[in-house]
C-alpha cells in the first residue's frame, strides 16, 4: 500500500511511538486519525500534522467504535490501524507489601492486550468494507509488542504477559482475516527514547544504551515509524513479529 493511499488510525498517537508514526505518515502523504485518551496533546499533534483527533479509551467498545466512525467520516475509509496505546507500570509478583495487585495486573492486560484487540477487531470490520486491490487486499493492522514479550525483567510480569499476548495474536489474526485481505503484523521495540524513558535520569539512560549491542544508543521513535511505514508498503509481510532493538537481549 502506497502512503498516499493510506488512511490510518493510530492509537497512542498523542505521544512517543504513536506520535512519531503519525508525523511520518502525514508527512509521507497519508491521511491520519489519532486516537488517544490525552485530548490536549492529541489535538495539538493532529493540528500540527493536518490530521484528525478523537479522544478515545481503547479499552471501551463504545469509545473505539465512535472513534472509528469519526475516522471514516474524516478520511473516507480506514485501511491501516496501528496500535501504540499502552501503559507500562512495574510490580513484582510478590513484594514487601504483599502479592502483585490483581487490579493492577488486569489494568495492564486490559489496556495493552485487550485494548489492542478491541481496536483491531473493530477496525477490521471497517476495512472489510473497502474495495479490494488487484491482489485482494483491504488493509493492514500493526500491533505493538515489546522485547519484554521475550526477555521480561523483574516487575514486568503483567507487562510481559500483555506483550506476549500481542506476539501470539499475529498469526491467528492474520489467518482469521485472510478472506478479507487484511494483513496483521506486530512490532517488538527494544528501548526507545519516548516521554516514558525521558523521565529517567541521564545516567540510567546511558546505562540502558550500553546494554544495546549495536548501535549503542536508545531507539529513536522515528525508527519505529519507518518500520511501520515499511510494513504498510511491503504487502508480503503478514502474521509475524519484527524486533527493532539494536540486537538488545536483556539479561
Ligand atoms: N518506549 C519504549 O521503549 C517501548 C518499548 C517497547 C514497547 N513499547 C510500547 O510501545 C507503545 C507506545 O509506547 P510509548 O513509549 O510511545 O508510550 P507513551 O507513554 O509515550 O505513549 C502512550 C500513549 O498511549 C496513550 N494511552 C494509554 N492508555 C490509553 C487508553 N486506555 N486509551 C487510549 N490511549 C491510551 C497515552 O495517553 C499515550 O499518549 C506501548 O504499547 C509500549 O508498551 C514502548
UniProtKB/TrEMBL annotation:
- Fetch the InterPro entries from UniProt: NAD(P)-bd_dom_sf, SDR_fam
State the Gene Ontology terms under molecular function. oxidoreductase activity
Show the CDD domains listed in the entry: HSD10-like_SDR_c (cd05371)
Q: Name the Pfam families on file.
A: adh_short
| Keyword check for Mitochondrion | no
Q: Which Gene3D superfamilies match?
A: NAD(P)-binding Rossmann-like Domain
**Family in the record:** Belongs to the short-chain dehydrogenases/reductases (SDR) family.
Please give the name of this protein: NAD(P)-dependent dehydrogenase, short-chain alcohol dehydrogenase family
Organism whose genome encodes this protein: Thalassovita litoralis
Q: What is the lineage of its organism?
A: Bacteria, Pseudomonadati, Pseudomonadota, Alphaproteobacteria, Rhodobacterales
